[in-house]
Write a structure and sequence with these properties.
The structure holds 2 protein chains of 2 kinds. In chain A, helix 8 (197-209) links the parallel strand 5 (182-186) and strand 6. Helices cover 34% and strands 12% of the residues of chain A. Chain A has a single domain (3-316), classed as TIM Barrel (Alpha-Beta Barrel). Chain A has helices at 3-10, 19-22, 64-76, 95-102, 126-133, 146-153, 157-170, 197-209, 227-235, 239-248, 252-255, 276-280, 298-301, 313-316, and strands spanning 34-38, 81-85, 108-113, 136-140, 182-186, 218-220, 263-266, 272-273, 321-322, 325-326. The two termini of chain A are 35 Å apart. Chain B folds into 2 domains: 8-37, no CATH class; 42-110, AhpD-like, CATH 1.20.1290. Chain B is built from 5 helices and no strands. The relative contact order of chain B is 0.09. Classes of the chains: A alpha/beta, B mainly alpha. Bound molecules: iron/sulfur cluster (2 copies). One iron/sulfur cluster binds at residues 43, 45-47, 50, 52, 54, 86-88, 114, 140, 153 of chain A.
Chain lengths: 329, 111
């Protein structure tokens, strides 16, 4: 579904439920603690819920010049976390170079990996690179049941992720006394919202122990009604019901800590967004803030007004949701 | 007014059961919150119990709410169905147990 159609669908909810009507005042960023780089839409998988609509056919990849500029910005500013996402970040040919540079800055460096790609001989070397450079890995594993994972992400994904987790554990990831962090992302395999993150983490740890693998933390993320997940909501005739659930469980406290207030998201072509979801809806930062990484201005961007639409309910439903999991614990 | 007794939208109306009896209603919610929150049993176990009970009690609102809650906590359809069978067998067992009365009376009265 093209972006204008997606926005049209998102605008088709009852007017009184518009996100702009729910919030009492404009929302502004408070800081930029996290620079999130979407280094490309190319991916070895084509998951059914993917808001990026990533896949092997995608060509968009972040160029070296954009990565160089990002590196300069994180070097010169007190941005504590560099969060690298995609697609499959490993498919960007400059990732290896970028990691070698950015990990020398003593900041938190995250790579969001589907782990399946690390089974491919062309990308296997990232395993050692991640461990050597102390990269935090955030791996997608939507469920602890193999059939559910494979339904959403493709055949044999669960077994390949578990096999890779075994290798990561052997390298020291998620081991006691080790600094190497392996966190997992849970997102519902269906059109419901995630339950209590702590309960899910407990169950994940118990079930995955049966496969002999361990991890640090579970980040539970609410599926955003954007991209392929929006398509699915429409096709399965669940859109109204899903949006009503998000609206009914709107939590004003979660609004205070939504991730866009402390994150700046950089698109593959250097365009700046309030978050990865806005990126997929082609809604760059606005209200006078510079819109491209080459025009980066910390003072302007750290207090920018956030661009909101009805998909924002996915961040404020229940306990709230972000790329780091639940907002309220 | 809706022209049917059960409307899925009424589930969202549940918090308003405090209307006309606020204090008692609030006390119910306090009790409800404590009883369903994780304790010695996990939230997951309690949600399965709630689903089985709501099915036995034929409450469409609670079946809706607790099916969604079970899904959100990672419970599968197979696991939910197992819990419902526990509820069903308990209901059947409780009916059959009452046959004791019938058997006692029959045995006492028949020649
Ligand atoms: S969800 Fe992640 S792994 Fe799946 S297609 Fe999208 S980017 Fe790739
Ligand atoms: S979806 Fe909306 S609320 Fe959530 S991070 Fe993006 S801009 Fe902020």
């Amino acid at each position: 579904m093209d972006v204008s159609k997606q926005l049209e669908v998102l605008s088709a909810i009852p007017k009184e439920n518009y996100f702009s009507c729910k919030i009492e005042q404009k929302l502004h960023a408070q800081s930029i603690d996290i620079l999130q780089l979407n280094v490309g839409k190319k991916c070895n998988l084509s998951c059914k819920h993917c808001h990026v609509e990533a896949g092997p056919h995608r060509k968009e990849l972040m160029a070296r010049e954009v990565l160089e500029k990002c590196l300069q910005i994180v070097t010169e500013n007190s941005i504590g976390t560099i969060d690298i996402t995609g697609g499959a970040p490993e498919m960007n040919p400059h990732l290896e170079w970028f990691l070698s540079q950015v990990t020398s800055l003593n900041k938190r460096v995250i790579v969001r990996s589907n782990l399946v790609i690390l089974n491919d001989p062309d990308y296997r070397h990232f395993l050692d690179l991640y461990a050597e450079k102390g990269v935090e890995i955030v791996a997608s594993l939507p469920d602890y049941h193999s059939d559910r994972v494979d339904r959403q992400r493709g055949p044999n994904v669960f077994s390949q992720v578990v096999a890779m987790m075994q290798k990561l554990n052997a390298k020291g990831y998620a081991q006691e006394q080790s600094k190497l962090q392996l966190n997992l992302v849970h997102n519902p395999v269906g059109t419901y919202v995630p339950g209590c993150q702590q309960s899910l983490e407990f169950e994940y740890k118990r079930r995955l122990a049966e496969h002999g693998v361990v991890f640090n933390q579970l980040f539970s993320i609410t599926n955003c009604p954007v991209g392929r997940f929006l398509d699915y909501l429409i096709r399965s005739e669940n859109f109204d019901d899903y949006m009503a659930t998000l609206v009914d469980t709107y939590n004003p406290n979660a609004l205070q800590s939504v991730m866009c207030r402390s994150t700046l998201s950089v698109g593959w072509d250097g365009v700046l967004f309030d978050c990865d979801f806005n990126q997929m809806l082609d809604m760059p930062v606005n209200h006078g803030a510079p819109t491209h990484i080459f025009d980066f201005d910390m003072d302007e961007l750290k207090k920018r007004e956030i661009v909101l639409h009805n998909h924002c309910y996915c961040c404020t439903a229940g306990a709230g949701s972000s790329c780091q999991g639940t907002l309220e614990h | 007014m809706s022209n049917q007794y059960y409307d899925p939208k009424d589930l969202a109306d549940f918090p308003k059961i405090t209307d006309y009896a606020t204090e008692t209603g609030d006390k119910f919610f306090e009790y409800y919150g404590k009883a369903t929150a994780a304790g010695a049993l996990s939230e997951r176990e309690k949600s399965l119990i709630a689903l089985a009970v709501s099915t036995v009690r034929h409450c469409p609102y609670c079946i809706d709410a607790y099916t969604n809650k079970c899904l959100s906590l990672g419970v599968t359809g197979d696991e939910m169905m197992e819990a419902i069978h526990v509820g069903a067998t308990m209901a059947a067992g409780d009916i059959l147990a009452h046959a004791t009365q019938m058997r006692k009376i029959v045995k006492k009265k028949e020649m």
